[in-house]
Amino acid sequence: MRICEMTNYAKRELSTLENPSAEAEWLVALTLNKRRSDAMLSDEISKRDENKIIKNVARRKRGEPLAYIVGDAEFFGLRLFVNRHVLIPRPETEELVECALSFIQKGQSVLDIGTGSGAIAIAIKKFTGAAVTAVDKSRSALKLAKKNADFHNACIEFLESDLFEAVKNRKFDIIISNPPYISPSDYEKLEKTVKDFEPKLALFAKKNGLEFYEKIIMNAKEHLNENGKIFFEVGQGEASEVKKLLEKDFRDIKIKKDLEGIDRIVYATKSGEKYV
To answer: What domains are there in the chain, each with its CATH number?
Structure first.
């Protein structure tokens, strides 16, 4: 079958989506492992590729995210493998990393809590050369994170750990985390593509979405070196509450908006030491 016929088939099948033409063209191109422009210039495709496209169109029609269908996503210009054991990296998390990069220096130590696909840890390692440790309680997520790190030749220490469990007696210069922050009420309102396909473990948090911020902040000071910094991505409407949680043990608390104008990043410096 010709590529144009398969693309038109995909457009018809995905007609209920917001932008069926773009969805169809991207799905066909990524299934064929081609750039979108190159795929559209192709002519005949094999029966095997035709069947792959039909199968992937059916998955997308059921609401499955494109990144899970093709098996990868881009983050900070890096290709990352993804599957249903990890969240698909978001642009907001790129902004978290960008904020942290302006403070992290080569040779410093960084702890990434809840690494998932390894997106944050790998980006920090590649762009700073810092010594990065990444923890996650999901063994399946860690397996994928290690695969991504190997793909990018990023030397990162990965540990199976419930928050600080595996680093009990260690300190770092930087702690960074994009923890689960969707509250029970907001979880029920999530889009089908997120709620039905992305891992609940990486999304849902009790205490109105603040559960993991409380747990991390409660122990963070003991795991930070002098003048150490902590960086969080937060859910909409949570920044002021996270700031309050930080006020006891941290100073210079800052809230940064994302590109949509939402308070999305909260960061602070460990208090109790002299200013440098």
So the answer is: 3-62 (1.10.8.10), 86-270 (3.40.50.150)
